[in-house]
Amino acid sequence: MAKAVAEVLRLAVMFVMAAILLQIPIFSGFLRLSDFHDACQGCHGRSSASSSQGQLQQVDQEMCGNGSTTAIPQSRKLKPLGKAQYPFILFSVYRYALNTFFVIGETSLVVRAFEQDKPVYSCEWSAMLPNGTVSDLRTITEAHMIYVKFDENGMGYGPALVNCTFNESIGSDGLGGVLRLHVARGPHRLADRFSVEDVLHEGARAPASAARKVSKYAFCGPPMYGTMKPLWIQHWLAYHVFLWKADVHFYFYNIGGVQTAKHYQVLEPYVMAGLLTLIEIESTAIDEFPAWYNHQLLFINDCIHRTRTAGHSWSFFNDFDELLYFSPPHTVDSLIRDNPQAAWMTFGNMPASTGHCAIREESRWPIERLMWHNKVPECMKAERDPWLCTGSQGRRKYMVNPSKVFSSGVHRIAIPEDGGVDLNGSVARVIHFHGVLSPRTHVCGIPVNMSHSRQVNDLNNRYDFDESISDAVDKAREFARSRNLLTST
Predict the structure, then answer these.
(1) Distances from the Cα of 263 to the Cαs of 10, 44, 284, in angstroms?
(2) Over 70: is that where the pLDDT of 170 sits?
(3) In the predicted model, what is the mean pLDDT of residues 310-319?
(4) Whole-angstrom distance, CA of residue 189 vs CA of residue 176
């Protein structure tokens, strides 16, 4: 008897664990099973609560299995639980040619599990007339849907691209128009369809000689959410604007992380100088459609196409707790010259301590005193060379030529997978101060007295001491100050 009870408990625990992992609504399921049981109580000679008040429950004996102990109802209805999965979510549209648009969005991972289930099946264009109304004439073409491979996702939605290429030029007058996507719930249910649309307001195309100057480099930031430390962002910006000698434009996606006056004071000088675009994202949409890291993959792929359309030559992708570093004599320009055909280049990821800080009274920036990092870059495969550990195993970050790259994940390029260079971590890497943005992380919580040889020796047994970032930050501060990019120090 004891063994039987133990076996029942073991199975129950396994069921609960599986339900949690698969997000099965356990209690709702129990309620439905209890409804099933209550409907057939009369089969076993038991009355419902209502029958005790003189109202006999009417039970169909055939429905209950001819009086058997197994209830098999012949008439039931489906009761949907939870939240519906949308087949496609539209985010942005970019024109690639006079007859081609690329649409950036997300698809339900349930839908994309079936390779032939392409929810977006056609694109439709309606031109804008000079009087501001939309023409009744429509041009339709087949949609080519691309499911983006990703290396980080465990939620409901993943990134997707839609290529809308028409047989003729559309909107060549520069007046804009409306692009509609026709979306079906399944490949064989075209009658059951709906559409999403984006209104494109395109200005008259200026001649190339009158085009505005576009920076060579672009930085595509991760989603800014939660509690962002404004001073860290200020120092991070100063370091990177110096790294690219101000020939850069920053694209930040704000979903609530930039919310106070201090945040805007840090960003305003860069916005006014034409160095930064802050893209505001409605936070309600983020909660409605769950995706990895607050839709980071969506923003990565949007920024690839955004920077291509803007005309930038190279776009960089790393996080706000990571500082990009090139070991002398290498620079970003020299690496591009050495790899002229590369579509992309990836960097090693070097974890660093956020707690150990050298005691330097003259310095007011913690980023200048964080000088201890791991001895080798991060690599999740022990048998691999950590300096060349690629992809998500090496937690790599990267730069892409947006005219050659169409999509990417967090740690690796998706399209094209070939045609790039995985740089040795000794040449190019990000210094990763993991958790430095969290309010729970006490940055510089462990002061290090550089004259205390025992403390320094103990640290050097675990980390490498490196003053390179500290020296660069000192120069970066003066560079940013000379361009009026610092509101406070």
Answers:
(1) 52, 68, 21
(2) yes
(3) 97
(4) 31
Mean pLDDT of 25-42: 38
3-state percent helix, strand, coil for the chain, nearest multiple of 5:
30, 25, 45
Tokens of 152: 């980080």
What distance lies between CA 17 and its chain's CA centroid? 28
* 264 CB-near residues (< 8 Å, 6+ apart): 258
DSSP string, 295-307: THHHHHHHHHHHH
- Residues with Cβ within 8 Å of 113's Cβ and at least 6 positions away in sequence, in order, are none
Residues recorded for the chain: 489
CA 366 – CA 138 distance, rounded (Å):
59
* pTM for the structure as a whole: 0.82
Secondary structure (DSSP) of 205-274: PPPGGGPPP--SEEEEEEEE-S---HHHHHHHHHHHHHHTTT-EEEEEEESSSS-SHHHHHHHHHHHHTT
Identify the H or E element spanning 336. Answer: helix 332-338
Helix ranges restricted to H, 1-55: 2-22, 26-39
| Collapsed DSSP state (helix, strand, coil) of residue 380 | coil
Cβ atoms within 10 Å, residue 138: 12
Q: Give CA angle at 357 (382, 371), nearest 5°.
A: 50
d(CA 56, CA 69): 20
Tens digit of pLDDT for each residue in 356-366?
A: 998 876 667 89
- pLDDT digits over 374-415, tens only? 999 999 888 789 999 998 899 999 999 999 999 999 999 999
Q: Are 251 and 221 in contact (CB under 8 A)?
A: yes
Do 400 and 414 meet the contact criterion of CB atoms below 8 Å apart?
A: no
